[in-house]
Design brief:
This protein has 13 helices and no strands. It is mostly helical and 319 residues long. It has a single domain, classed as ABC transporter involved in vitamin B12 uptake, BtuC, CATH 1.10.3470. The longest helix has 33 residues. Its main location: membrane. It is a multi-pass membrane protein.
């Protein structure tokens, strides 16, 4: 079929482009001891790939259950939740305490709190059969505003010097991911990915909407809660690794849909992951080789993502 052929060719093209960028990232401008260079760049590359895959997959899954290609997990206040968790931990331990805290413990605390809070919200909203995703989204917006306001209140109580240190920690950074976290992050993201692979056909059915999915034999509440749990893990791990990334998933998924030309998850999920890898690896090369670390990858991603978000809103408004 023409659509299937286009999707396969798009995946091959994205895979080749991602592979070329990865090869260039690992070798371009390398001098000196290759063992050190490859190990150093390999750790950074693994962090970029993990974050790109987690953010892209979580956005695809969230858009599937909400049946909306503009919404992202950020609408549920995940970024605000990370902001509050990091602020409270910093306020409790102080700048000196956080500097001496094991990064794995910091990572585990952030991930556990974010997953626990998000799943508590999901269980409350889906406690009965009449609960709707519309209420989920509405409360998610209010939830996010409340958490961000609370985090800003705590930040105002900090010493100005400590606030500067906290601001630096909260800024999305893709270049200094602690190597100690890559192993556990790989296990968590890998486990969710393996769980998703045999459920791709179910995701296609769920994407048709609640009434159709139920008529086709899907246990809606159970399936949606399981998907949202997977979203919680992916977003929590990505946020704990690099911080707040609002628009990366939106850009990656939008470009993936444009590339494959259909909504089948067996094509959209790998395409979104590959686009995310292309954006982060290519963007990091741009930051290092062109701007000489004069800017941050997070700023580039948010700038492009903000433009994409506005363009999508305008396009939907014209329909």
């Amino acid at each position: 079929m023409p659509h299937e052929r286009r999707a396969r060719l798009a995946l091959i093209g994205l895979a080749l482009l991602a592979g070329g960028l990865i090869l260039a990232f690992m070798t371009l401008g390398a001098r000196g001891n290759w063992d050190f260079v490859l190990a150093f760049r390999g750790r950074k590359l693994l962090g970029l790939v993990l974050v790109a895959h987690a953010v892209a997959c979580s956005t695809v899954l969230f858009q599937t259950v909400t049946a909306n290609r503009i919404l992202t997990p950020g609408i549920m206040g995940f970024d605000s939740l990370y902001l509050l968790c990091a602020t409270l931990l910093f306020a409790a331990f102080g700048a000196a305490g956080m500097a001496g805290l094991d990064p794995r413990l910091d990572f585990a605390l952030n991930v556990a709190v974010m997953i626990g809070a998000s799943m508590a919200l999901y269980l409350w909203l889906f406690g009965g059969e009449e609960r709707s995703l519309h209420r989920l989204l509405l409360i998610g917006v209010v939830f996010g505003i409340f958490l961000r306001t609370l985090a800003e209140f705590v930040q105002r109580l900090l010493d100005p010097n400590e606030f500067m240190v906290l601001s630096d920690r909260l800024f999305a950074s893709f270049s200094d991911i602690p190597p100690q976290l890559l192993g556990i992050a790989s296990l968590l993201i890998g486990a969710v990915t393996l769980w998703l692979i045999p459920r791709l056909s179910r995701l296609d059915v769920i994407g048709l909407g609640r009434p159709v999915a139920i008529n086709l034999g899907i246990t809606w509440r159970t399936e949606v809660l399981a998907i949202l749990a997977a979203v919680s893990v992916l977003v929590a791990v990505a946020a704990a690794l690099v911080g707040q990334v609002l628009f990366l998933g939106l850009v990656a998924v939008s470009l993936a849909h444009l590339a494959v030309g259909q909504s089948a998850h067996r094509y959209v999920l790998p395409a979104a992951s590959l686009v995310g890898i292309i954006l982060l690896v290519g963007g990091q090369m741009l930051v290092e080789r062109v701007f000489a670390f004069g800017t941050a990858l997070g700023l580039i991603v948010e700038f492009v993502g903000g433009i994409t978000f506005i363009a999508l809103l305008v396009a939907r408004g014209r329909r």
